[in-house]
Amino acid sequence: xxxxxxxxxxxxxxxxxxxxxxxxxxxxxxxxxxxxxxxxxxxxxxxxxxxxxxxxxxxxxxxxxxxxxxxxxxxxxxxxxxxxxxxxxxxxxxxxxxxxxxxxxxxxxxxxxxxxxxxxxxxxxxxxxxxxxxxxxxxxxxxxxxxxxxxxxxxxxxxxxxxxxxxxxxxxxxxxxxxxxxxxxxxxxxxxxxxxxxxxxxxxxxxxxxxxxxxxxxxxxxxxxxxxxxxxxxxxxxxxxxxxxxxxxxxxxxxxxxxxxxxxxxxxxxxxxxxxxxxxxxxxxxxxxxxxxxxxxxxxxxxxxxxxxxxxxxxxxxxxxxxxxxxxxxxxxxxxxxxxxxxxxxxxxxxxxxxxxxxxxxxxxxxxxxxxxxxxxxxxxxxxxxxxxxxxxxxxxxxxxxxxxxxxxxxxxxxxxxxxxxxxxxxxxxxxxxxxxxxxxxxxxxxxxxxxxxxxxxxxxxxxxxxxxxxxxxxxxxxxxxxxxxxxxxxxxxxxxxxxxxxxxxxxxxxxxxxxxxxxxxxxxxxxxxxxxxxxxxxxxxxxxxxxxxxxxxxxxxxxxxxxxxxxxxxxxxxxxxxxxxxxxxxxxxxxxxxxxxxxxxxxxxxxxxxxxxxxxxxxxxxxxxxxxxxxxxxxxxxxxxxxxxxxxxxxxxxxxxxxxxxxxxxxxxxxxxxxxxxxxx
Length: 682
Fold this sequence. Notes:
The structure is a single chain. The protein has 682 residues and is mainly α. It is built from 26 helices and two strands. It has a two-stranded antiparallel ribbon. It is globular and about 80 Å long.
């Protein structure tokens, strides 16, 4: 088959039927809820019905053909490739965490929307068409052919570095997706978080393991339809509820002044100030402990042991004894651990002690210096996300799947269109949910807390995703007494807004579709890099096509289980993991990709130096400045946060490529000819 109109028409007909059936499924579940179906069963129905659907598509599209497995036969029409790329792109970070980030950060959160959207402009202009003209399988393929050098002129060193970057970036990113799968599965089916991760993993593997890019492409189109409907319906519902306008992107502008007025009232509320004063007191207590280390750690440990011994000696209640045991068991094991824990708690209490920042105010700060620092970080994050987007292997791989270079350009247009349908709604959802919480929950009675708070608080009891406690003892919920994790807001939005539970199940299915679609693409990028670029190109060039596909499937299986294990350890929040992946991708791959297309003088030695320099600068800065990696925010350069480390890595990589290329011999005539070929009009 080809990408001609009959093939397009057939695909369009299939997906129209699919969309209609999905709409009937929603209506049927809504009617079952009206008839009294338990919420848990609704959660099971959405989760397992959608996973089964993706599995069926994966089984139908199974293949052993190298071209089908790696690049879907290069016959995906531009519009459908745009939908698949949008689903690949709208990850758990976009669907689940981005609105939550905007809720917590206000204007600063727009950096993610601007950076991720702007990155696709770079993809369309600078990279994707030229990769399609090259017409191979992977990003390391392109870099090895472009830069040549090494034994036999095959660019083995460049290929190896590109494979390493692909694996590291994709693995960091996929851990975030699998973490989101566990979060959704544990909330909506009641299973343990770790079990939820491996349940979701089964769906990922059925799609990518059996059919590679062919199965992933057609599954991602189906997943995009689900995630679009899942995101738009609750947002439109909330928009109509609060602004009498079902178009969120238009309605939320009228709601912003009301939210600003509510924020100002809460900032001046004396009961809110009581709570904030208590958090300041707690922060000062931790600061005092930190100032007296190591003596304070030793004294605290002795006190915890004495309290447990005293409780046992006087035959205290079982609850009191258990509390004393828990206090001793969770006490820091060393001075270094105490310093880390107490610093984190001090900072958390200081954050809770601040009055709410105006949602719509750009770069608020107590001083000009603080405001300037926030603006600089905003621009740095936009920079990193743009250049990271243009370097992500699992996104660039999709450039190989279209029938022609022109189709690749058109597919990027469709990708942006389908992404914007969601991205233009995300800021509206953040404002709508915030207004609902500020007006409905804040000021309500603790005895009448909505049930969604207890549901989400129990998903992860060790680190509650939602918490509310009566700090000042007045029985009324203050804003400062309420905390919600950014990764929860979208999933909890239907319950926050009082929508039917069927909508909550729909949002969970959408979040699952976003996480699974991205995880599929990432795992395939890793396994293809290992099987094609390492095994076939560097270890066994005579391997049969059947063996190459089999090796790829086995590697995919192994990487998936390793990623699931890492995700089960809850290494960081989703947005932080994703931001790290983007900085590493941009720092390592963007300079060599762009200069490889537009600067003929770039050579083998320059590419090696650029990838190493960009990666090293980015990683060193993260290790130096990220508390999660053992660093300190006091060690930042110019106040730039570690998630924006690419702002240093990308220029370092660029300068290294240019400097080393100019100091060494020019590239071969074959390399220059390749540049002429990929840049010539089709």
